[in-house]
User: Fold these one by one.
Assistant:
Number 1:
Amino acid sequence: MQIEGCVAFVTGADRGLGAGLLNALLERGAGKVYAGVKKMEGVADGDPRVVPVEVDITNIEQVASAASNAKDITLLINNAGLNRTQPVLETNDAEAARAEMEVNYFGTLNMMRAFSPALKSNGGAIINILSILARVALPSMASLSASKAAALRMTEGARAELAPHGVRVISVLPGPIDTEMSRSIPPPKIPVGEAVDAVLSALEGGSDEVYMGAMAQEIARGLAADRQALHARLLTL
Ligand SMILES: NC(=O)c1ccc[n+]([C@@H]2O[C@H](COP(=O)([O-])OP(=O)(O)OC[C@H]3O[C@@H](n4cnc5c(N)ncnc54)[C@H](OP(=O)(O)O)[C@@H]3O)[C@@H](O)[C@H]2O)c1
């Protein structure tokens, strides 16, 4: 689909990848961009095409209200995400698994359910920003991996449900991106500008599952070639 003239909704638009996507959509001629933010003070104003929307994606009433005020959308980018950087068993944050599932799985599902009626009638696309850790568990972040894996399966289900309505659903699986979320991860990390380009070019490409960055692509190849050897290697990280 074309970015020029599109009406987009981006969650988590106040910082990191979401802020980069917001700016790039404007630069590339989007007609309107709803900037979904958890707290209203996070949005930069200035461009009249930006419509700030307060929406915590785990809050079903806020999500419903956002959807009823954005019935003109043609592109939904589910970018908001949470990573508490926890393993699954010996965790020092017993609430992490539930919080990550609430945001990464249920929050994304809330948005898709609320916005799909408008997308069905307008046509368009959904991009879900997942993670390469939807395909493999990095032991130190296995809790996040579980929530992203659930979101990946849910995205596949939604793709099948929306295909007959002409709505494309794309999963983007990035490796580490240079944002606050990956502050504790050593380089190399994908610069935000490159990550933004990869997300938006997914709209032009034919693949519905996009592996972003060298690490994600190497893991995808490793999974296809020898899953067990790859898992053994991840245990050492
Ligand atoms: N950075 C990486 O290495 C990496 C790698 C793979 C995938 N990803 C994915 O890329 C996406 C963007 O992450 P990022 O790197 O830009 O991280 P970030 O800088 O930590 O930004 C996360 C964004 O999500 C928002 N958010 C969190 N919980 C929310 C909720 N309940 N409702 C609405 N918004 C919420 C945050 O809002 P507040 O500012 O209000 O907290 C923030 O805008 C995420 O889905 C992440 O999982 C990132």
Number 2:
Amino acid sequence: MSKWSVVHTVTFLQDAYMIKSYLESAGIETLIPDEFTAQVNNFYTTAIGGVRLMVRTEDLESGVALLKEGGYINPENSVTDEEILIVGADSSTDMTCCPFCGSANIGKRNTPGMAMVILYFLLSALFPIFRSANKCFDCGKIWKFKKIRQ
Ligand SMILES: [Zn+2]
């Protein structure tokens, strides 16, 4: 199975579709994992940190280059090379620090308002895939914890 990386994040689904067709016309396969949430209600996308547009990791470099060329992303913007890693966690795992460098300087990737937090928990109960990722501000890694049953 090939890995997918976030090539760009937009606020509205229609923007994601525009970029999707742009990349696909250049032969790069894309994925919009938040597509259905965004279709249900555009406001949900704020809770899940925008609409993510993903490409295969091997296409990431050319995808980013195309988006810069097309003016979709600022060439100075380096946050587009984010890759979400899945980290196994059991009851002894310390989820308050970075599993890669041990730094406690981590945060959720998005900081939604309280209404969004409630909405987001309701949604994530239905669709666990929408759970947001953690980010380390020291080493820049982004990951999700996956509970391991004991
Ligand atoms: Zn770290």
